Amino acid sequence: MFQVILFNVTNGLIIGAFYVLMALGLSLILNLSNVINFAHGNFLALGGYLAFMLVPTMGYWGALLIAPVLTALIGVVVERLMLRRVYGRDPVYSLLLTFGLAFVMQDAARWYWGPNPLQIDMPDVLKTPLTADLFFITWYRIFMVAIVIATVTGLFAFLRHTRVGLRIRAGTLDLDTVAALGVNVKLLRTFNFAVGCLLAGLSGVLATGQLGLNPNMGDDLLMPSFIAIIVGGVGSLTGTLFGGLLIGVAAAITAAIFPAASEVVIFVIMLLVMLVRPRGLLGEEGVMS
Amino acid sequence: MTATVLAAGQRPAQKRWLSLVAIWLALLTAPLWLPLLGGYTALAGKVLVFGLAAMGFNLLLGFTGVLSFGHAAYFGLGAYGAGLTLRYLVHSTPLAMLVGTLLGGLAGTLFGLLIVRRRGVYFAMSTIAFGQIFYYIAYSWNDFTGGFDGLRGFHREPIGFGALTLDISGGTWFYYFTLAVFAVAVALMALLIASPFGRTLRAIRENERRARFLGIPVERHIWLSFSISCFFTALAGTLYALLNNFADPLALHYSLSGYFVIMAVMGGMRTFWGPLLGATVFVVLQDKISSLTVNWMSFVGLTFILVVLFFPRGLLGMLKRRGVA
């Protein structure tokens, strides 16, 4: 029994870690640019596919490093060519734009890499389990969680202690004032979008070992990421972090007890939070409106 | 921009009558001329159904200025409500439509209470997430809803008017039945928009803060507008289930919500008939493209991007603007 619970909690934390990486990127873009990036799941898949192409030449570790960066660069191109034109306009336009972009990216991935799941060859050390008893805790999973922790810590340190990070946080609160103080807001938004895509790309590379690599692998992560943001509180990255972990674990535990409800339970959590605490667990008053 | 839109709304009465007659004449004769252009009657029915859904949705987006990205939920609830009623409860088309419309409309009304204080992109995000609940329920509750394969095992029943019975199982008859429902719904919407309530909604759209200073209970109006638009969209959903004798989880999926948004925007969200035009273009294009290529998703996605970047006013919006200039 203990093993079953541990198994599900571990699963939940792993899935939750994906939600967190994905939702943090979404949250960054949402906070600064007021854009819901529907294509975020497709940037995630893109990261996975880029890694798939890079592994034969530079190995797993190289791909893990380079694929997210390439994803971020593609994000920069997308932001410069398209997204930039809808900033400050009615939100309907940014939503439609990223929604259309998601369709195009998914179809392009299916066309180029095919609809069937692909596999990335991982180093042997990552495939071995920790002990025979706890067969489900492989080094890959530990490694993955470690990377996510390191990334999240790095992101928070970056936002807190660097000048650019400070500007991003200030822009979240009042972009006009930040612009008036002489900060190049255009560049800031591009950079911020790139960071979001970097996180998506990184979770894409990591997710291939867990979820498999297919054109719509990001779809199942998108909705939970929205919910992680709502539950945690819009405007608060710490909230997003806890929101992602919370719904990941809740979904996994429900999956053990009552599998049919595992997808619905995160929505129930969302509704409860919206009822009891409309601004989200750690959200600030007034940010939502 | 506001001034031009308002000025464009005040076209000469004569011209307005002319376009109204043209629209209704085209809709009434569609089963006659559509086959000549390579279409079929069920396609026209689909246009009406999605047109009604998009026009109902546009009460909120175009006339109140509030963006919901989850209207597929209410559309799908309407479809499932009608289908489940016909299959499990009672063999009556009007009752099925009533149950479906109430189900979708009331779900929207209740949910509206939770989100009415949110604005802009946060309102949209909450509606997306909420809408997906029903998708997952329909998807996971296999025994009751048919799961991923959708709900089958029901069909449209003849409607009795006292001694008279109307058999709507045939395609053409059902088209005219849909058109009649559509006409009543659209007349209601037109009355609503012309009423003081409708004018208040537009005042909120143009300047929420000023509306609030005038003593208008903004939240209550947005909530009412959201609920009403959910009822109309759910009504369209019931017609959708009857049209196909089938309801599937994709009728609940947020992609469909996106389609409603693009229909409204592509046709012209600040115009009354724009969403119908947008629905026509979208449904016909999707029908043609998906029969030509497997990569229809790219075409749909590109349509979204092109409309946003180059035709943000939509087709009717551009026409009207040209008429003024």
CATH topology of chain A: ABC transporter involved in vitamin B12 uptake, BtuC
Tally of DSSP helical segments of chain B: 16
Gyration radius of chain B (Cα, Å) is 19 Å
State the name of the first-level CATH class of chain A. Mainly Alpha
Tally of alpha and pi helices of chain A: 11
Oligomer class:
heterodimer
Calculate the terminal CA-CA distance of chain A, rounded to whole Å. 46 Å
- Return the string of H and E elements of chain B: HHHHHHHHEEHHHHHHHH
Could you list the spans of chain A in which at least 5 consecutive residues all have pLDDT below 50? none
Provide the helix percentage of chain A. over 70%
Class per helix and strand makeup of chain B: mainly alpha
Largest interface: A-B, 45 and 43 residues
Shape of chain B: globular
What proportion strand of chain A?
A: under 5%
- Which CATH architecture of chain A? Orthogonal Bundle
Number of strands of chain A: 0
Largest β-sheet summary of chain B: 2 strands, antiparallel
Mean pLDDT score of chain B: 86
Task: Bin the helical content of chain B.
Answer: over 70%
Q: What does this entry look like structurally?
A:
The complex is a heterodimer of chains A (289) and B (325). With 289 residues, chain A is an all-alpha fold. Chain A has one domain (2-276): Orthogonal Bundle (ABC transporter involved in vitamin B12 uptake, BtuC). Helix content of chain A is 74%, strand content 0%. Chain A has helices at residues 2-33, 40-81, 91-113, 124-127, 139-161, 163-173, 175-180, 185-211, 219-232, 237-257, 265-276. The longest helix of chain A is centred in the N-terminal third of the chain and has 42 residues, at 40-81. The radius of gyration of chain A is 19 Å and the shape is globular. With 325 residues, chain B is mainly α. Chain B has one domain (2-324): ABC transporter involved in vitamin B12 uptake, BtuC. In chain B, 75% of the residues lie in helices and 2% in strands. Chain B has helices spanning 2-9, 13-28, 30-33, 41-64, 72-89, 93-115, 120-140, 142-145, 171-194, 196-206, 208-213, 218-244, 254-267, 274-292, 296-310, 314-324; strands at 159-161, 164-166. Chain B has a two-stranded antiparallel ribbon with strand order 1-2. Residues 1-9 of chain B have low confidence and may be disordered. Classes of the chains: A mainly alpha (289), B mainly alpha (325). At the A-B interface, helix 3, helix 9 and helix 11 of A face helix 7, helix 13 and helix 15 of B.
